[in-house]
Design goal:
4-stranded antiparallel beta sheet, alpha+beta, 180 residues, PH-domain like, 3-stranded antiparallel beta sheet, 41% helix, single chain
Length: 180
């Protein structure tokens, strides 16, 4: 669990200002969703199925915080390895971000164009950096056996949860074992 003051400081330290109107509950709930060693890279406020969502790109994963007015805040974690596509389109003032993962295409609408463009760039940087680290191993060296075992266990859990197919698991396992 990350301290609320640390989260607020990371948000203030972002190189760009983000419209955070209507997402106070989501930001407050981030402290229960983020790990101590996890850091915010970018934020974007949007709508999904008529509720406000906060998209949070961290150095480890994408967190989608969804505020249900009477029921509290829900969240969805998406590993950067699960993201197969990111796209966006803009209109006059607002735009839409489309994030494709194993569960399908997820649409987040009515994000301010400036916030949207910056967030998509940050998200793509995070996805690419994570994949590069995953394929290269720690410090660009071959993976050690503890790292491989941990990654395989994590991937197997995704298979059990239905977020990864057996074929995708086998492909990633082959890549991991080739680097060890």
């Amino acid at each position: 669990m990350k301290d609320k003051k640390e989260i607020d400081a990371e948000i203030r330290a972002l190189p760009h200002k983000v419209s955070l109107w209507g997402v106070r509950k989501e930001i407050k709930s981030l402290q229960y969703k983020m790990f101590k060693d996890e850091h915010i890279k970018g934020l974007c406020r949007a709508f999904s199925q008529s509720t406000i969502v906060l998209l949070v790109a961290t150095d480890k994963r994408l967190i989608i915080m969804d505020d249900f007015t009477f029921y509290g805040t829900d969240h969805k974690d998406i590993s950067y390895m699960q993201i197969s596509g990111v796209d966006y389109n803009t209109r006059l003032f607002f735009g839409k971000i489309i994030i494709e993962d194993q569960t399908g295409r997820n649409f987040y609408d009515y994000a301010l164009n400036g916030d949207l463009r910056r967030f998509v760039n940050i998200l793509l940087e995070c996805v690419n950096a994570y994949r590069d680290r995953f394929l290269a191993g720690p410090q660009g060296k071959p993976h050690d056996s503890a790292f491989v075992a941990e990654e395989l266990a994590s991937l197997w859990q995704l298979v059990k949860d239905g977020a990864l197919t057996q074929e995708e698991y086998d492909e990633r396992k082959k890549l991991l074992l080739a680097k060890s």
